[in-house]
Amino acid sequence: MTTPPTILVVDDNPDFLEQMKLQLEAAGFQTVAAESAQQARELLPTTDFALAICDLMMEHSDSGFTLAHAIKRKDPAIPVIMVTAVASEAGVTIDASSKGERAWAGADVILDKPVRFEQLTREISRLLKLPH
Fold this sequence. Notes:
Elements lengths: L5 E5 L3 H13 L3 E5 L2 H7 L7 E5 L7 H12 L5 E5 L1 H5 L8 H7 L3 E4 L4 H12 L4
Parallel strand pairs: 1-2, 1-3, 3-4, 4-5
Helix pairs in contact: 2-3
C-alpha cells in the first residue's frame, strides 16, 4: 500500500485551516498545517510534502506570494495552490493561467475563497497526477 501524499496547508484563519485538514484527511491525504507564512517557512527545511495550499494574505498582504516562492526554491516541482479572498474583499482578480503569471505568483493554481472542495481535489489530483 502506498503512503498517501502529504499536503502542507497554510492559513491564518484557524477555522479554514481546520476545515481543510479534516476534508483533506477524509479524502485520504496526510496533512501538515501551519497558522502563518512564518511558521510554514520554519517547517520547510525539515518537512516533506507533495503539494502546498496557502492563503495569500496572512501576516502581510504578500505573505502567500513570498511563501510560494520559498516553497519553489525548496523544490520547483512542488505544486502550490494559492487560495485567497482578495477577489471578494478588494475586487482584485489574480490569475495563474499563463506560465508568466504562475512564475510571478509562485503558484500553479489560484482559487478564490470560499473554495469548493470538489474543485480543490480536482486541482490536487491534476497537479499530483493522481487518478480521479
